[in-house]
Write a structure and sequence with these properties.
- The structure is a homodimer.
- Chain A is α+β, with helices and mostly antiparallel strands.
- Helices cover about 45% and strands about 10% of the residues of chain A.
- Chain A has a 3-stranded antiparallel beta sheet.
- In chain A, a hairpin with a 2-residue loop joins strand 2 and strand 3 (about 95-100).
- The longest helix of chain A is centred in the middle third of the chain and has 14 residues, at about 75-85.
Chain lengths: ~120, ~120
């Protein structure tokens, strides 16, 4: 089994900058439910989002434009909301834009090893 | 992070008896897809099924009657099939009855740590 150190070294956790907007509504860490988290991660697009945030984040959080998906914005909005409501990501509103990052510490605390599986996932060819 | 040893000690893997019927159709271990496995596990009833098989199996595999669910048989059949088709469980036909067990080795090989999370899950109160 891969060690936590392996997960941590693959995952980029960028420091929280000062003066962030409040997070949008989300479950507290103790309210996270495995069935909801797995449901949110049971979709290739949402796995792609979380994996890219884990491995390629260039900033603390990212708007949906950063991902470069060729999809209608309304569909992407739905997926980002599903991830937030399950507790996988935290979203903040910056003016007209929402940006997301992965709740790495909360997920590692409640579901150890799960983010390793997401980081190791590859899309079906 | 919990070790594989911790997972193994909680999980009962009973030896395969001789003369078993052939398994029903299922994905091979190398065909298992994380998104499909997580989707199959994103439901409280299916988590209950897998957790009970992991922790309380009394035989190699179990029919749906063993679980004691107060649900229509057709609904249970659907859930057991979803678990098999995602590759979480293996089902065999014994006469009129189907029995399931968890593909512990295959899941540990492909998604290390995932079954630990299932074994540690508890239903919402």
């Amino acid at each position: 089994m891969p060690s936590t150190a392996g997960t941590a070294s693959a995952t980029k956790v960028l420091p929280e900058p000062p003066g962030l907007p409040e997070p949008l509504p989300e479950p507290a860490v103790e309210e996270l439910r495995l069935e909801a988290v797995l449901g949110a991660l049971s979709d290739p697009l949402r796995l792609t989002i979380v994996r890219k945030l884990l491995l390629e984040s260039e900033q603390f959080d990212h708007s949906c434009g950063w991902f470069g998906f060729d999809r209608p914005k309304s569909s992407l909005t739905h997926h980002f909301k599903a991830l937030r409501e399950a507790g996988v990501t935290r979203q903040r509103q910056y003016g007209l834009e929402r940006r997301s990052h992965v709740r790495v510490d909360d997920l590692n605390a409640r579901f150890p090893g799960l983010l390793y599986l997401v980081a190791a996932w590859t899309p079906e060819v």
